[in-house]
Write a structure and sequence with these properties.
By secondary structure, the chain is α/β, with parallel strands linked by helices. It has ten helices and eleven strands. A six-stranded mixed β-sheet has the order 5-6-8-9-10-7.
């Protein structure tokens, strides 16, 4: 029987914490890693109904994409929603791991999966982040060392054939299983290169433009970001935060099940998008 630590170690390799944003709170957050791990559940966000499901189903580990305790915790009581959930999970012995932005940017992570869903070709990293050279290089530059792998956030690539924004919107709807979405730009605008960044990632507008993309697909964007995109001639396709990330948690459940066949793994069955689309 694997330990929770074994699953955590796999997750750290699969979605390296080094790829996470500096402001993020990723990794093993709650519980005892030395305990046996027979049941695992994945989810996008730990909400009261998802926590209740984990306790009721006697899960040993919940892999929640969005982290609990995102900000420093000074008091842990049942007076807050998060505090009540944490106390319930701890009392039931349910551990929590959050990969978050490390999973967003991993080589097989959420943004790569989004690019694949849209059929993008020649996929590249949208915003590169310089990886530090090994320390030995700083000591002796004559010593040959392997160059670090290029890392970064978001992805971009070209469509198989140039299309219009209207047709890209229909592709996004089919690929993510949504019937409604928001968008910025004229329906007949030509689109050949597309950037993707899951969740709420309008900060990648300059990166998409720098990569000669005509459209950025992200979950959601603030009003002023939409104004900026329109002014700069970049289309935005906004299918919702949940729609861009939840499918990846279902795939992660399948990945964990394949890696640990003796562990019962599944995605949450009660989780749902809190935003209703009319």
């Amino acid at each position: 029987m694997p330990r929770i630590a074994d699953v955590s170690a796999f997750l750290r390799d699969f979605a390296p914490p080094a790829l996470a944003e500096e402001w993020d709170n990723v990794g093993f957050l709650v519980g005892d890693e030395e305990r046996d791990c027979a049941r695992v559940m994945t989810c996008l966000t730990l909400t009261p109904d998802v926590a209740e499901e984990a306790v009721w189903e006697r899960m040993d580990l919940v892999v929640s994409h969005h982290p609990l305790m995102f900000r420093p915790v000074q008091r842990l009581t049942a007076d807050s929603v998060e505090g009540a959930m944490l106390l319930e999970l701890i009392a039931a012995g349910v551990a929590v791991f959050s990969p978050h932005t490390g999973y967003d940017s991993a080589s097989e992570g959420i943004n790569r999966q989004l690019a694949e869903r849209l059929g993008l070709l020649d996929v590249e990293i949208l915003r590169e982040r310089a990886a530090s050279l090994p320390e030995i290089f700083a000591v002796d530059p004559e010593v040959p060392v392997p160059l670090p792998e290029v890392q970064g956030a978001g992805r971009c690539g070209r469509l198989p054939e140039p299309t219009t924004l209207g047709k890209l919107i229909e592709l996004v709807k089919r690929s993510l299983g949504v019937s409604n979405l928001q968008y910025v730009g004229p329906d007949d605008a030509r689109v050949a290169r597309v950037a993707v960044a899951c969740g709420s990632a309008a900060e990648f507008i300059p990166d998409a433009l720098a990569r000669d993309c005509e459209a950025l697909v992200t979950g959601e964007a603030r009003f002023h970001a939409c104004l900026e995109a329109r002014a700069r001639g970049l289309a935005l396709v906004l299918p919702g935060h949940y729609a861009t990330e939840r499918p990846a948690m279902e795939r992660l459940a399948a990945t964990l099940a394949a890696r640990f066949p003796e562990v019962a793994v599944r995605a949450s069955e009660v989780e749902s998008d809190p935003v209703n689309w009319a």
